[in-house]
Design a protein that fits this description.
GO biological process, one term: L-valine catabolic process
Helix content: 40-55%
Protein name: 3-hydroxyisobutyryl-CoA hydrolase
Structural class: alpha/beta
CATH architecture: Alpha-Beta Complex
Radius of gyration: 20 Å
Number of strands: 9
Keywords: Hydrolase
GO molecular function: 3-hydroxyisobutyryl-CoA hydrolase activity
Number of helices: 16
InterPro entries: ClpP/crotonase-like_dom_sf, ECH_dom, HIBYL-CoA-H
Strand content: 5-15%
């Protein structure tokens, strides 16, 4: 058994299962570059180790094991690196997206205990899992438009594969959903009451399994019904979020009489107008892409989020308003969804690299 308790990640082999615990509870297990590298190293070591049949991952909360999965990437680091020209900003996204791809293509069961907050980068290290477990405490979202970013870490790929236009709705609004909705929207596979997680986790290391599939089947056998959904339905979402562009979506919602429609329009008006257009294009392009193609597109996009307009990054401004100055008053540019030029949106999808030199050229 190996144990790295001094790290922000605890990596151990218990019985025949590789167990990972995200161990940065005060930051809700937000991912740093060091954490991404530790995760990658552990998974690469286990991928071809016949003694490790499966992988399980969880987060430590402030009260101990479970309670928080992962709130995303470390946005304070992104702000500091983006404003100071720290090249580790580039490393972070390249390595994080490569990690996301590895999880999707791992080849062994990867069981994610998605308790508590599962947002942004937390979705990136769970959506590729073969068994994605939610609890009554799960709060799931891809809230990147709030900070002038887009749902990355493969978000284009997995959100575009939600039913109907749910992916567009989740991507543009950044809305938070609970367990039953996550299952209904194909972003989770099953429900486990939070007070039963520890027993299942402990059992993984305490018995013999014939294969990785048997490990996964054992965990799946503990899942129960998730109860009623609470999010809006496809019938509510689709008429608006199937419209041809972000301006049409916002204006149609504002013109409607329903309470949900008006509230959704008001929410969208607070998001980065530029990124609403970019994100809608991202989701729709990703529907026809492989995961590797989507991650390469997102790597292009995130480069542009920080460097397309020097001194006028929507992402740096969004993080400033939310997490640095905390004035919650980002100065978006352009300020209105109606004023975003199409050529500025298109620029996010022009790769800064020739195909052979792309940082993620090796993904397939």
């Amino acid at each position: 058994m190996t144990d790295k308790n001094k790290s922000d990640i605890v990596v151990e082999v218990r019985g025949q299962v590789g167990c990972i615990t995200l161990n940065r509870p005060k930051a809700l297990n937000a991912l740093s570059l060091a954490m991404v590298r530790d995760l990658m190293a552990a998974l690469l070591a286990w991928q071809h180790d016949d003694k490790v049949l499966a992988v399980a991952i969880r987060g430590n909360g402030r009260e101990g094991a479970f309670g928080a999965f992962c709130a995303g990437g470390d946005i304070r680091f992104l702000h500091a690196a983006g404003t100071s020209g720290n090249p580790q900003l580039e490393d972070f996204f390249t390595e994080e997206y490569a990690l996301n791809h590895l999880i999707h293509t791992f080849g062994k069961p990867y069981i994610a205990f998605m308790d508590g907050i599962v947002m942004g980068g937390g979705m990136g290290i769970s959506q590729g899992g073969s068994l994605r477990i939610v609890t009554e405490r799960t709060k799931m979202a891809m809230p990147e438009t709030i900070i002038g970013l887009f749902p990355d870490v493969g978000g284009g790929w997995f959100l575009s594969r939600c039913p109907g236009r749910v992916g567009e709705w989740l991507a543009l609004t950044g809305e938070t959903i609970a367990a039953a909705d996550a299952i209904a929207f194909k972003l989770a596979d099953g429900y486990l009451p939070s007070d039963q997680q520890a027993a299942v986790w402990d059992a993984l290391g305490g018995q013999q399994f014939a294969s990785g599939q048997v490990v996964q089947d054992f965990v799946a056998s503990k899942l129960v019904a998730a109860g009623a959904t609470s999010a809006p339905t496809e019938a509510q979402i689709d008429p608006y979020f199937a419209l041809p562009n972000a301006t049409a979506i916002v204006q149609a919602l504002e013109a409607a009489s329903g309470e949900w429609e008006r509230a959704t329009a008001a929410m969208l008006r607070k998001r980065s107008p530029l990124m609403l257009h970019v994100v809608l294009e991202q989701i729709r392009r990703a529907r026809d892409m492989s995961l590797a193609e989507d991650l390469r597109m997102e790597r292009d996009m995130v480069r542009h989020c920080f460097y397309l307009r020097p001194g006028a990054s929507e992402t740096i401004e969004g993080i400033r308003a939310l997490a640095v100055d905390k004035d919650h008053a980002p100065k978006w540019n352009p300020a209105r969804v109606e004023d975003v030029p199409a050529e500025l949106v298109q620029a996010f999808f022009d790769s800064p690299w020739p195909a052979w030199a792309h940082p993620l050229v090796a993904l397939n």
